[in-house]
Amino acid sequence: MKRRNLGLLLLGGLLSSSVWADMSLNLTKGVTEVSRDVYDLHMLVLYICTAIGVVVFGAMFWSMVFHRKSKGFKPATFHESTKVEILWTAIPVVILIAMAVPATTTLIDMENNDDADITIQVTGSQWKWHYKYFDQDLEFYSVLSTPRDQYENQDGTSAEKGENYLLEVDRPLVIPTNKKVRFVITSDDVIHAWWVPAFAVKQDANPGFINEAWTKVDDPGVYRGQCAELCGKDHGFMPIVVEVKSEADYAIWLDEQKALKANAKAAEAASLNASVPLEELMQLGETTYTAYCAACHQVSGQGLPPAFPALKGSAVATTGPASEHIDIVFNGKAGTGMQGYGKQLSLKEIAAVVTYERNAWGNNTGDAVQAADVQAASGSAGASVTETVKQAVEDVKEQVTEVIADIVPAEDLSKVYSQDELMTMGEEVYMTACAACHQASGEGMAPVFPGLKGSAIATGDVAVHLDMVLNGSKKNPAMAAFASQLTKTQIAAVVTYERNAWGNNTGDLVQPADVAASAK
């Protein structure tokens, strides 16, 4: 009798909602109405599943213990009982309906973005978040601020971890309380996922697509999350921090951001006439490089070839002209993992980081790049140029483009290239535009960037292969269209190369005329 009472006591403790709710491994309630609905739905399903488990296993063990053969019990011989079959069909259906009704209601609420008070565009990129407020002239990048010496311990030592290790950023997203905030989520490069557990928001950020989510927070506070989709080598260093302020504090924050923006424009204009010493440029450049560049090119400047080339001793950072170096940092490089930092960094910061890259790790070019040099090399109009002048510059660019189009002869699509010519040109195009994703060896980085070595695409129908390179992939948004980035001759060469490199050896030679026909 005592054992039975003890068992009932333990069972009651197991089923106690307060016990489960307080467990550290349980789902958290969150701070929004939707997150609490999700928590309640989770607990309801957990209770139902636990009850089913107790009944089923309880009946099974009861039968095994009290109806065993050693006690003289004989098994029943009935079969094909209509009543039993109806019961074990009807009961699960009723249970599923009981779970489906609240689940459907909660899912509909989670997807209802109507009547939003604020809309914010969230753009993921390797490896940072870009926030743009639609109702305000405000946008900024949010980057991991945990010091590198806390997580880079290749030498076996590291600094003491902070309280919010790898979950802290330089600029958090700020939203007000009691306002419905709609998030429009996308990506600049690969697939990311914007996840804030306290809001019950987890939405994929897909390149070329827009996903939506929303939240409405009742209480001020700081809520943390992170990218929840494997997005590359530094996926674990892409945190999300949302600071929720009262409506009054949020209005003050907006005014502060406008003032900061005005001050930044004034400082940018002043920097165009300043001559910063090399030592000061190197100090600022090292800080900027560590925050924005070291994730790919490494603190040592050694890089991670071929996707992220080394800067130490490279032609770009040493023998090449500073103007080309500035252009790559400012505008990025098409077809590679090098993104443009013109919108992320000030002209002075870009000048400093280029100076640092051209003088660190033994490069020692002696170049001291100034903000004015960045403006001149990048084509940036700068803060001192009016909108009228900017528009005039754009008009001139359009006119020049039209003139060049008239002067430069059209691509010769009738020319027939030899296999050696196509393979040589194709390898060069592949290493520039494709190797960052599919690797120089053609092995790829599955599943986002599938291998081309021995693949069905590179050894199957040529027309399908051409269409993929020209128009991209509808199933895999990471595969961009190259019709507007490469010439038809370059596409013919790179497709030929992919179909004959790494042992594919299809023997197919694709000519520019074939690409032109496929494009039509």
How are the elements arranged and paired?
Layout: H1 2-15, H2 17-22, H3 33-66, H4 82-111, E1 118-125, E2 128-133, E3 138-142, E4 173-176, E5 181-187, E6 192-196, E7 201-205, E8 211-215, E9 221-227, E10 239-245, H5 247-271, H6 278-292, H7 294-297, H8 322-331, H9 347-359, H10 371-378, H11 387-407, H12 419-433, H13 435-438, H14 456-459, H15 462-471, H16 488-500, H17 512-519
Parallel strand pairs: 1-5, 4-10
Antiparallel strand pairs: 1-2, 2-3, 5-8, 6-7, 6-9, 9-10
Helix pairs in contact: 3-4, 6-9, 8-9, 8-10, 9-10, 12-16, 16-17
List keywords for this structure.
520 residues; alpha+beta; five-stranded mixed beta sheet; 17 helices; disordered N terminus
β-sheet strand percentage:
5-15%
Cα Rg: 30 Å
End-to-end Cα distance? 85 Å
Outline the low-pLDDT stretches. 1-17, 381-390, 403-409
How many distinct helices? 17
Number of strands: 10
Helical residue percent?
Answer: 40-55%
Which strand order do you get reading across the main beta sheet? 3-2-1-5-8
What's the SSE pattern? HHHHEEEEEEEEEEHHHHHHHHHHHHH
Q: Which structural class best describes the helix and strand composition?
A: alpha+beta
Mean pLDDT equals 84
Mind summarizing the main beta sheet? 5 strands, mixed
Shape type: globular
